[in-house]
């Protein structure tokens, strides 16, 4: 048996939209570009081939530095769960593949409890990624409040 590399960053956030709407945000390249990169970083390009085995690529600009996140979709179970691999060009070992699991649970009032579990991270990067996912979850909540205001009341 091999020892599990890294640890897991876990973030939970109640979002102001139904699971199907939140799920769609995760697969739409234009939507991802709006909220995926933790500010002040910006997504410069997003490519999403939303099918199991399809590729994901996010090109990021952060304070003049540019890097890429790449992955492959592993699970697409609309509107409950999606999973994809995650590799970053700036990691000490950029060939290392971590995994992001996004779980979406319907809540009262047309809301969604989103849980992001980022597993197999290099141990020294867990805290950084957890902070990043907290910011990203907040940015997604803000985006959803803007895109679908009053979705619970129609």
How would you concisely characterize the structure shown here?
The protein has helices spanning 19-27, 29-35, 126-147; strands at residues 7-15, 42-48, 55-62, 65-77, 81-88, 98-107, 111-121. The protein is of the alpha+beta class and 154 residues long. The protein has a seven-stranded antiparallel β-sheet.
Description of the structure:
With 154 residues, the protein is an alpha+beta fold. Helices cover 25% and strands 43% of the residues. The protein has a seven-stranded antiparallel sheet. Strand 2 and strand 3 form a beta hairpin. 27% of the residues are buried. It has three helices and seven strands. The protein starts with 6 loop residues before the first strand and ends in a 7-residue tail after the last helix. The N terminus and C terminus are likely disordered.
Contiguous helical run count: 3
Q: Note the main sheet.
A: 7 strands, antiparallel
Strand order of the largest sheet: 1-7-6-5-4-3-2
Task: Specify the overall morphology.
Answer: globular
Low-confidence stretches: 1-5, 149-154
What is the radius of gyration? 15 Å
Structural class label: alpha+beta
Strand composition percent: 35-45%
Helix content: 10-25%
The total count of strands amounts to 7
